[in-house]
From TrEMBL:
This is 3-oxosteroid 1-dehydrogenase. Its EC number is 1.3.99.4. The lineage of its organism: Bacteria, Bacillati, Actinomycetota, Actinomycetes, Pseudonocardiales. One of its GO terms (molecular function) is 3-oxosteroid 1-dehydrogenase activity. Belongs to the FAD-dependent oxidoreductase 2 family. 3-oxosteroid dehydrogenase subfamily.
Amino acid sequence: MSGTISRRQVLRGSGLAVATTLLSRFPAGASSLPVLGEYDVVIVGAGASGMTAALTAAKRGLSCVVVEKAPTFGGSAARSGAGIWIPNNPVVLAAGVPDTYAKGAQYLAAVVGDGSSPARQKAFLDNGPQMIAFVMANSPLRFRFMDGYSDYYPELPGGMPNGRSIEPDMLDGNLLGSELAHLNPAYLPVPSGLVVFSSEYKWLNLAAVNAKGTAVSAGCVARYLAATSAGQKPLTMGQSLAAGLRAGLLGANVPVWLNTPLTDLNVEGDRVTGVVVSSNGVLSLVRARRGVIIGSGGFEHNAAMRAQYQRQPIGTSWTVGAKENTGDGIQAGLRAGAALNLMEDSWWGPAIPLPDEPYFCLAERTLPGSLIVNQAGSRFVNEAAPYSDVVHVMYDKNPAAPDIPAWMITDQNYRNRYLFRDVLPALPLPDPWYQSGAVVSAWSIEDLAAKTGLPPATLRATVNRFNGFAFSGTDADFARGKSAYDHYYTDPAVFPNSCLAPLWEAPFYAYKIVPGDLGTKGGMVTDERARVLRADGSVIAGLWAAGNASAAVMGHSYAGAGSTIGPAMTFGYVAANDIAATA
C-alpha cells in the first residue's frame, strides 16, 4: 500500500537524499536569502491540485501564494481532457445517476486493493463530493456528467457501466482578462470553429459513418457560433478547468507567481517553514507560517529520475505531461526526509511517437478494424482495455520487452471511416509521420511485415485469426468486447461486436506503439490528511502534497476517466483544510 515502503526504496531514497544534501547550494541554510514574502500557506504548482488548494486556503481565511515554475498556469491539467472521477459527486447525482457512497467505496476497494491505504481511499471518497461543491460555489466552474463514459472496470462490484465521471462545462475565457494569455495550451487544440466537450470526441470520430456523430459535429459548430456571437471566448476540457480555477483565485485575490521555480524547501529544526525559489534569477525565500503544499506534478520529463526508478525502455519523449514536470517538488520532499512510493509507475497509455509530439491513443486502438501486435507479429493484449492496462502488459508480459515498440495494424476501410487524431477520414496521413517511421503502409500484409521487421507468416496468421473473431463477434484470445468499457470508443454500426471488424482493404497501415503516459504517478507518501510522511510513518511537520507529486491513491490501477485529476483536486482541498484546522 502507499504507506508501506520497501527496504530497497528507503535505501535508494536515502542515498539520493544524502547525495543531494551534500551537494546543496545552501550549506549555511536559506535564512540569509532575501525574503520575497510571508504567507500562512505557500503552494507550489499552479495545476489542478495547487490551484484547488490555494482556493480552499483563501476561502478558509488563510493568506497564500502560488509559485509556479512555468511561464503559464494550468500544468498538465490544462493540456488534458479534464475528466474528473469522483464517486457520488453532486453533479452526477443531479443528473440522476444512481451512485452512492457505498457503491463508490466498494468499487474503489475492488480496483485499487492494497495499492493505497483504506484511510486515504476513505478520505478521497469523503472529501471528493465536498470539493466539487466547494469549487462550484467559489469559482465560475460548472461541470457536466460524461454520460456513457463507463468506469474502466464496470463489471467489478460497485462499477458503473454508464460511468460517474464529470468534466468542466464551457467557460468564457474573457473572465480572465489579460491573464488568459498565460493559460497553458491544450495538448490537442480543439479544431477551429468548434466547441467540443471531452465526452463528444467519441462521436466526432464517427461523424463520417454515424448519424449521431454528424449531429454532434453540427452541435459543436452551433455552440461555437452562439458563443462567439455573444462575444465569448469559449473554453472546454482542461482549458476550462484551469481557467475556471484561476478565475476563482483572481476573485479571492490569491497571487500566482509564474516563472518562479521551486529550488528547495526551507527547513528549520524538523519543520518545513517555507520554500526557496528562483525569481528573476535570484534565489529568494518565501516563508510559510502554517505550511507548504506541493502540487508541482510528476517527474515525467526528468530523464535521470525515469532511468533510476522506471523500467526500460523509457524516456521523456513519449509523455504528454507538461514539459516543466521534472520532479522538483518530489526531490525537495526527498531531501526533507519524505518517503516515496509508486515511483516505477505512470498514468500509462499506448502512444504513437509522431515527429511533432507523441499521440496518446484512446479511440484509435479500440475502433473496429484495428489490432496491436508485438515484435513477433502476435497479439498480446485486449486492445480496447483501459489504456494503463495495455502498457502494463507491454512491460510485464516479457521482461525482455518484445512488445516495445508494438505495432497497431489497420486497413484502408478503417481509414475511410474514422477520424485519426485530427486527420479526417479518407484523407492521406501527413508525410512527416511516414518519414519519422511512426507510420508504415503497404499494399499487402506481407509487405507491411517486411517494412516493419515483423515475421510475415506470423502477421498474416494473426490477421486471419483476428478476422475470424470479427466475423463471429467473439475474441477467443483476449475477450475484446466483453467489458462494457471496451465499447465506449467503438462503432455501433458494426455487428456482431462493435469492437471487431476484419482487415481486408489495401493499403494496410502499421502505427508504432510505445508506452506513453499522461504523467508519472509516484511521489511522496502522504496520509489521509495529505501530510507528507517519512519512511517510518512519522509526519514531516509543515509539509503537505497532492497530485502527481504524491503517490497516487489509485495505486497501480485506474478507476475511470479522471482518476488523475479527481484525486489531485480532492487532496489539494484536503491539504488546505487540514492546515486551516491545525493550530
